[in-house]
From TrEMBL:
Entry protein name: DUF177 domain-containing protein
Domain of life the protein comes from: Bacteria
Compositionally biased spans, kind Basic and acidic residues: 147-160
Region (Disordered): 142-176
Species: Aquibacillus halophilus
Pfam families named among the record's database cross-references: YceD (PF02620)
């Protein structure tokens, strides 16, 4: 999504409104959990004061992520409100932690900043709400078992069953 700097200068104090669908599908190839992402809708406005350009925009879209339990595809809708500030000053140099980005040339490309904000919206984990998927999900396997927060009976290892009976006998004698 490229915006000409001249267009912002021409608008003066009036904000420049924009709305566009942006294809960010190449972020799927990065090392993250996003399996698929549709084009995101970006809409907002830009204002210019002196050498600073301020963009206020929102990003709406849906990404496909793996379920943390079953690894099935889960649609995750998201909406992000973003403020990005740019400087057209030839003397401005971007520092490491700076919130102001330098503009080089006559076109300002918002696509990298859109991708960055989409990646920041990827949640740590998602779970599928589909009942059929939850019912067919594995709950145990060889050497592992899914534990829930529900209280369960404590299982005694059969090899230690004899020791448990000795402890029970000792407790009964002490209570007499």
């Amino acid at each position: 999504m490229k915006i000409p700097v001249q267009k912002l200068k021409f608008n003066g104090a009036e904000p420049l409104h924009f709305e566009e669908d942006v294809d960010v599908s190449d972020i799927v190839e990065m090392n993250n959990d996003i399996r698929q992402i549709d084009p995101v809708q970006v809409k907002g406005n830009a204002t210019m004061q002196g050498n600073e350009i301020t963009f206020h925009f929102s990003i709406d879209g849906t990404m496909i992520l793996p379920c943390a339990r079953t690894l099935v595809d889960v649609k995750y809708p998201f909406q992000v409100d973003v403020i990005e500030v740019f400087s057209t000053s030839p003397y401005y140099k971007e520092e490491d932690e700076s919130e102001i980005h330098p503009v080089s040339g006559e076109m300002l490309d918002l696509t990298p900043y859109i991708k960055e904000n989409v990646l920041l919206e990827v949640p740590f984990r998602v779970f599928s709400d589909d009942k059929e998927v939850q019912e067919n999900a594995l709950t145990e396997g060889e050497g592992w078992e899914l534990l829930s927060e529900k209280p369960t009976e404590q299982k005694v290892d059969p090899r230690l069953q004899k020791l448990q009976s000795l402890l029970d006998d000792n407790n009964e004698e002490e209570n007499r």
